Q: What sequence folds into this?
């Protein structure tokens, strides 16, 4: 597999944390730079080629040579050295290596691009006044440096193939041939004007969402109509916007592009295609012709860029590619579609252009290409086929829109801590891409298919209903909270409904969720939502912004079994919808943890080989019991393991809580729940009861982490570790996995609620880790989930599964059924690079594997992953997306694994299996029942809102869209 890997140093050997500036200090520095006439710069000097520096009036001698520009303030140099932050870059002062910044996942390059964006939307940002500091930056030196930079990096075939999208974007931002990023400038100018003149907002929205040449007239008319309200400065700003728009919407300059092409020395097939296109007369350049031809040319350039021999040729061709994309962005908006066939063609063209502009990888497109091309050759399509086409093209839009995020989210998240405007950078990248027009076309298709299929979403505040699709059936009522940005620090409320830009990895219980990025179908968050009947849907980023107007309102939210979605204010609920929320209905969700067969008398460390599935819930939890069964079925695919059974935990809980208190840990725990029950009988509010329990359990959690371990138990651990792992305790890194009796019940999965510790080597940390895992069921998140759905949450017992670490190349999850297809014979698989893949909501490579097919549902868009060094701990790497994670050999191994599991375990039950590959060898880590919420799936109400679809209905491709 051709992967271009970059280590991201996360350890203390990076920059000394004591020297780092905190975010408050960084904010203060940014504000000081904005007010300073010199901004982040100190003063102007001559920088000579021999390394010496001279005063402004004492230039470098001609025989030495040099350039003149500003140097950086000491405070800015400190940010560079200690925080790896780069503001106000002077390119001519940089080296290619430090600016490209491979060792930090190209952070310096990406920060330069982000700085350019902030400059455009915030009146110069850190250069607010320094942009007028004469001589600080010499444009001719910057352009010369930029050209040399690209001529250097474009020699590298691997870099060009693996970071194609990033390089094309950098060409738009780094000066090297006199061009500016006019699309970004147009959006930033219109944004600033709309903030000053609210009446201009509608025109700004049009420019941002569906830009066309007619927008120039809209702006001119606005200026004429409101001339009396505009002072000289505002008039000048509007004139600058009109000038920018005229530049952006100018017709394609064939003569100039042909002149550029004539400089190319590699006369290959792509060269000849371009030459033929540029040789056509402008009268032949109809919108249809431009969209189809440019889409193909962009695709051909992407496929063949490394066949141009020199970096100078590659630079010329990529610049031409960016110019062609600019024309396509305009013409795609102008392309009219009157019937279904027109629309199918347009989606094909723009999908092809998505590859050509780097939003899709070549291999990704090849896996779905037939699905989007085949309808072109048909006269009629069934509703089922049309829905398949729609789902595929929706995926293309999602994958394309995720590429900017995958490339830039790391630096955006860093900047967002001290500069909230940074988050708009990713949205700006999406809006300046062909994903915008492709998304419009697919939305039009979605509206058409919804009408023909009788699928109608009912979502208040959305003009385009078709871009929302349900993932998990269920219904909820609660306060709507729209989270635009990083969700990890959001304190969620279990009675609220959340719309996330992406789902957090450790989501606490909520009433309902919608996400722009659904993560993957088999992450812990998705499995919990599916298991517990929590309604869950995917929507576009534009939808999220539109729904902000309902933020804080009490809403009703439902997802049907077929994925149709209802979201409306609670005041508009029907009587049947109101009846869904009576106490009798909701009480049906409560589940009891079985404790009648639990064995608390077994208090020795157990070899995993000695247990099987029948021991689940008795000696240990299902992870250990089922892995023991797998060890018997697949002795070469399952590692050795040790189990700390329920009984050892229970024995330790019999110790006194502290020297001054004769109450044991267990009695303290029992008293907490007894007190909560008394409070409930006394009509204490649920909020007060929960607050009391959380505070009491937080104390218990900390106490368990600090409890003394029985000496005999430690001796057993040491002896068994040596016996089973053939290594002394502290010499082999291991995983410590919480394995409670509340997991994998018939109606409750418990997936991901308790602690797993990765790759622990040190003996003291392993022993302390045991107590941390014991304590994890009493964390707020774990308690809230089980408290909400379990009738006897006090009877949760943790066992621990200890297995040696396997530093897998990639890992993930398999569900032994088709989650989306509903076919019990299919397999749903999600994989990410490194360890712990897919379970924590990573944007994973997701596939539907059938008996004779392998369908890509989503490619990975997770930019980093972890590996497990022998020294313990984890190391983080960055990766690229230019090759699939799973290969055909892996797919066959997965089919064989599923077949064996179905033969040897219950064939009436689907399973959730975690595993990984090391040098193409499959290693099994966990198996558990896959639990779905049958109540949500069978609810009469959900059935009533599920559309009845005639899948065989035929639709002629010449059918009018309106």
A:
């Amino acid at each position: 597999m051709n992967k271009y890997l970059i280590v991201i140093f996360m350890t203390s050997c990076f920059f000394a944390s004591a020297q780092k500036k905190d975010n408050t200090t960084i904010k203060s520095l940014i504000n000081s730079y904005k007010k300073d006439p010199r901004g982040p710069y100190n003063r102007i000097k001559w920088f000579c080629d021999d390394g010496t520096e001279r005063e402004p009036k004492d230039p470098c001698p001609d025989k030495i040579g040099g350039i003149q520009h500003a140097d950086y303030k000491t405070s800015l140099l400190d940010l560079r050295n200690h925080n790896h932050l780069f503001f106000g870059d002077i390119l001519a002062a940089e080296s290619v290596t430090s600016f490209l910044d491979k060792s930090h996942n190209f952070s310096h390059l990406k920060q330069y691009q982000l700085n350019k964006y902030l400059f455009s939307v915030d009146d110069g940002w850190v250069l607010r006044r320094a942009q007028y500091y004469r001589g600080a930056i010499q444009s001719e030196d910057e352009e010369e440096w930029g050209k040399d930079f690209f001529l250097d990096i474009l020699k590298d075939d691997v870099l060009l193939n693996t970071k194609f999208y990033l390089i094309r974007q950098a060409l738009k931002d780094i000066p090297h041939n006199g061009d500016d990023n006019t699309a970004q400038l147009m959006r930033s100018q219109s944004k600033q004007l709309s903030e000053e003149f609210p009446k201009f907002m509608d025109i700004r929205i049009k420019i941002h969402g569906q830009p066309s040449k007619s927008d120039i007239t809209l702006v001119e008319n606005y200026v004429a109509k409101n001339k009396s309200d505009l002072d000289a400065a505002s008039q000048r700003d509007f004139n600058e916007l009109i000038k920018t728009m005229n530049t952006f919407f100018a017709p394609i300059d064939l003569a100039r592009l042909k002149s550029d092409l004539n400089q190319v020395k590699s006369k290959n097939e792509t060269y000849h295609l371009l030459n033929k296109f540029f040789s056509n007369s402008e009268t032949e350049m109809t919108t249809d012709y431009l969209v189809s031809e440019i889409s193909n040319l962009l695709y051909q350039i992407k496929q063949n860029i490394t066949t141009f021999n020199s970096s100078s040729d590659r630079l010329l061709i990529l610049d031409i590619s960016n110019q062609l994309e600019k024309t396509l962005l305009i013409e795609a908006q102008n392309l009219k579609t009157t019937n279904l066939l027109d629309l199918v063609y347009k989606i094909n063209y723009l999908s092809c252009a998505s590859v050509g502009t780097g939003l899709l990888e070549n291999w990704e497109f090849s896996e779905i290409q037939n699905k989007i091309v085949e309808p072109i050759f048909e006269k009629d399509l069934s509703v089922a086929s049309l829905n398949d086409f729609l789902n595929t093209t929706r995926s293309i839009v999602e994958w394309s829109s995720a590429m900017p995020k995958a490339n830039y989210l790391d630096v955006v998240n860093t900047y967002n801590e001290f500069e909230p405007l940074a988050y708009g950078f990713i949205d700006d990248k999406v809006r300046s891409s062909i994903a915008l027009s492709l998304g419009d076309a697919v939305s039009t298709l979605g509206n058409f298919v919804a009408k023909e299929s009788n699928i109608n979403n009912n979502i208040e505040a959305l003009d385009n209903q078709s871009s929302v699709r349900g993932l998990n059936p269920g219904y909820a009522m609660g306060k709507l909270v729209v989270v635009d940005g990083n969700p990890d620090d959001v304190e969620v409320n279990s009675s609220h409904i959340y719309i996330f830009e992406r789902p957090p990895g450790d989501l606490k219980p909520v009433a309902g969720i919608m996400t722009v990025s659904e993560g993957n179908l088999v992450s812990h968050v998705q499995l919990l939502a599916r298991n517990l009947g929590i309604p869950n849907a995917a929507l576009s980023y534009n939808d999220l912004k539109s729904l902000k107007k309902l933020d804080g309102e009490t809403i009703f939210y439902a997802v049907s079994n077929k994925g149709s979605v209802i979201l409306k204010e609670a005041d508009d609920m029907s009587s049947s919808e109101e009846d869904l929320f009576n106490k009798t209905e909701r009480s049906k969700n409560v589940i009891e943890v079985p404790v009648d067969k639990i064995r608390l008398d077994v208090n020795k460390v157990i070899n995993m080989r000695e247990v099987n599935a029948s021991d689940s819930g008795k000696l240990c939890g299902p992870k250990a019991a089922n892995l023991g069964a797998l060890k018997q079925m697949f002795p070469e695919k399952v590692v050795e393991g040790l189990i700390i059974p329920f009984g050892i935990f229970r024995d330790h809980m019999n110790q006194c809580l502290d020297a001054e208190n004769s109450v044991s840990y267990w009695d303290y725990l029992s008293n907490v729940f007894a007190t909560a029950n008394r409070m409930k009988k006394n009509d204490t509010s649920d909020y007060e009861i929960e607050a009391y329990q959380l505070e009491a359990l937080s104390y218990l959690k900390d106490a368990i982490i600090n409890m003394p371990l029985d000496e005999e138990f430690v001796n057993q651990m040491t002896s068994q570790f040596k016996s089973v792992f053939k290594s002394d305790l502290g010499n082999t890194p291991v995983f410590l996995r919480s394995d409670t009796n509340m997991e994998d019940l018939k109606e409750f999965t418990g997936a991901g609620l308790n602690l797993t510790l990765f790759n622990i080597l040190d003996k003291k940390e392993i022993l302390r880790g045991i107590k941390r895992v014991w304590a994890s069921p009493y964390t707020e998140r774990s308690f809230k989930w089980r408290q909400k759905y379990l009738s006897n949450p006090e009877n949760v017992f943790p066992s621990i599964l200890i297995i040696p670490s396997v530093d897998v190349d990639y890992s993930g999850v398999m569900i032994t059924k088709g989650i989306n297809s509903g076919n019990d014979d299919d397999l749903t698989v999600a994989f990410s690079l490194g360890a712990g893949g897919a379970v924590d909501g990573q944007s994973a490579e997701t596939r539907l594997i059938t008996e004779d097919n392998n369908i890509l549902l989503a490619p990975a868009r997770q930019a980093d992953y972890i590996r497990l060094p022998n020294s313990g701990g984890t190391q983080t790497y960055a990766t690229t997306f230019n090759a699939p994670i799973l290969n055909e050999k892996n797919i066959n191994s997965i089919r064989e694994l599923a077949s064996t599991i179905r033969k040897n375990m219950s064939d009436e039950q689907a399973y959730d299996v975690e595993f990984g590959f090391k040098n193409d060898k499959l290693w099994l880590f966990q198996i558990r029942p896959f639990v779905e919420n049958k109540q949500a799936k069978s609810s009469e109400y959900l059935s009533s809102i599920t559309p009845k679809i005639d899948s065989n209905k035929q639709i002629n491709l010449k059918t009018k869209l309106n």
